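seq:
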Amino acid sequence: MKITRRAAFALLATPALAQTRFTAQRPVRIIVPYTPGGVSDITARLIADPLAASWGQPVAVENRAGADGVIGTEALARAAPDGHALALVSVAHPVNAAFYRLPFDTMADFTFLTMATRTPLVICAARNFGASTPAELVALARARGAGAAISFAGTGGVVRLAPLMFANQTGIELSYVPYRGSTQAHPDLISGRVDIMFDTVPAALPHIQAGTLKALATTGAARSPQLPDVPTVAEALLPGFEATTWGMVIGPANMAEELAATQSRDIAAALRNPVVLDRHRVLGAEVISTSPAETRAFVQAELTKWGAAARLAGIEPQAAR
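struct:
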């Protein structure tokens, strides 16, 4: 007998999880404040079925993209804190505070439930670029001097701030070249018109595997399973250096502590589903879960880290588009 994916999810829901958690039988919304197809969107859609089975009510994913995630996140901030409105946000949530004057408070207006995914960046360059390690990159930048700074392709957010943090910690100068997305940046990177890029592993991996780009290092705390022979920046040059993209489930502020704890546990269980784990493994994303307290502490640390990187680079918050 063939078991459908939905049926497989339902079979994995335990009787304890199958009990309804809410006071009203109406759908739960997971807002994804980005366009469809990204890791956050995929994660939300993968956990929707097991959560629906656990909670005994529909779970719908709603894409509300715009202003780098600000529009959808603001919608969550205005929702009732009854567990029926959640969002799956990315590292853009704390990073946006460095770039924009936001219509909400990054910390105070939300309840932080659990981390969901974590994905390292990879420093990549054309195969004939004159450096193949972080140390060689620093040496090359110093040899060129300020008048011919290493250029880096950035698409905003952490992909822009991570190279600036690297430059600050190594004492070199990098020149920012903005692109709308990785797809637009890759041809110039491959041709050498721009020197390097701190890109997500899933986006850069096909070009690295094809040999048109080379990986100098990854930026996670540990090596990427997709690039096991590539050292991290932390082990190769800068102990403690870490810059990752990630996904996280949050709710509006003032959710009851018991409700937040319950939803955090249920979402963690959904993330451990084999279908969810296998899909993220293909994407190059690590699936993780944390308690509400751990999640809040992590966001606060990210807010501090990326805010400092932006200030050192002279970035001033602008009105959200």
